[in-house]
Amino acid sequence: MDSSDPVALGRWWAEALGWVVVDDSPEEYEIRPAPDRMPGLLFVRVPETKDRKNRLHFDFRPDDQRAEVTRLLGLGARHADAEAEYPWVTLLDPEGNEFCVLGVRAA
């Protein structure tokens, strides 16, 4: 994932996902579900800032959508500008990357 601050963004996503840090280099910061478990996410420093919608979009599907949104907002996520009446909540990570928190999957 391109980032202006890979360490800060990588730490944020590690906390959001409950993953562990496997490389805390300031230029390439890597997190994984467990130290020896793949795939992981690699955060790489780039000079440009995000200027359009993500091509890769994460969706969370928690048991309790409201509690998960509250938790992620507490970590520093923020609501996306365009809030509509959907069964999901669109949030932004600290660098403005969109992701959604879905409701429980229908049986």
UniProtKB/TrEMBL annotation:
Residues 1-102 form the Glyoxalase-like domain. InterPro entries: Glyas_Bleomycin-R_OHBP_Dase, Glyoxalase_6. It holds the Pfam family Glyoxalase_6. SUPFAM superfamilies: Glyoxalase/Bleomycin resistance protein/Dihydroxybiphenyl dioxygenase. It comes from the Bacteria. This is Glyoxalase-like domain-containing protein.
